[in-house]
Amino acid sequence: MGGKGIKIEGMKKRYGEGDTAAYALKDVDMDVAPGEVVGLIGPSGSGKSTLLKCLGAVIDPTEGRMMLGDEVIFDNGWKVKDLCALRRDKIGFVFQAPYLIPFLNVLDNVALLPMLAGLHNDEAREKAMELLTALDVQHRADAMPSRLSGGEQQRVAIARGLVNRPPVILADEPTAPLDSKRAMAVVRILNEMALKLQTAIIVVTHDEKIIPTFKRIYHIRDGVTHEEVGEGRSYK
Length: 236
Ligand SMILES: Nc1ncnc2c1ncn2[C@@H]1O[C@H](COP(=O)(O)OP(=O)(O)O)[C@@H](O)[C@H]1O
Ligand SMILES: [Mg+2]
Known about the structure:
4-stranded antiparallel sheet, 6 helices, single chain, 6-stranded mixed sheet
C-alpha cells in the first residue's frame, strides 16, 4: 500500500458560479515523497482546508493534476472509478480534536475502518492492536476514550489514521492541544511511521513548537503555494 507519494500540479478550486465565483485555490503545486513529512502553513482563509478536502477527495478540484505514485488520480476530473475506495484506502486523516467515537473502546475505534473496508472483526482488531502497539497505547485497548489523557487520545487518533496503511496521511493541527513534550512525541511518531510505512504525510499546523522540525514546508497564501526548505531540527 505505502511507497507511493503524492504530487499535485497546478491545482485550482473555485467555489460558486458566475458573479459569486471565487477561487480558494489558484495555483497549488506539491510533491511529497514516500516516507516524508512536510508542513503546510498559511493564515486563516488561505485555502488549507480546501486543499486537504481536495486531496482527500471530499470535494472536487476545479482544475489541475494529482498523482499517487505513478497513477494519475485527477486530471481536470477524477480518473479513478471508485472514489469511496480512494478515500477509505489511500488517504488517512488525523484531526486536531481526536474525534474518537465515545461509545466504542480504543481497540474498536481503531478497528472500525478496517471492518468497514471488509475485514472480519477478528482480523480488523488484530490489525488495530498492531498499530496501538506501535504507538505504545496497547495497554489502553479496552479503555473508553473518555478515560484517556490528551496525549493518549492523540496517539489513538494517529493509530486510526494509519490502520489501513494509506500511502497518504493528512494531519490537520495534530499537536494543537498538546504540551511541548507531547507535541514532540507526536512529531516523532509521525516521522517514524512515515519511514516505516513509507507514507507521505502532510501536516497543517500553526504550532511554533513543531514548525522547526520540518525539512520542507509549503506556505499557502491566497490559494497559492510556495515551497521553502525548513530547519529540519531534531524532534528527539
Ligand atoms: N464551501 C465554500 N463555499 C464558498 N467559499 C468557501 C467555502 N469554503 C471555503 N471558502 C472560501 O475559500 C477560502 C479558503 O478557505 P479555507 O480553505 O477554509 O482556508 P483555511 O483552511 O486556510 O482557513 C476562503 O476565502 C473561504 O471563505
Ligand atoms: Mg481551515
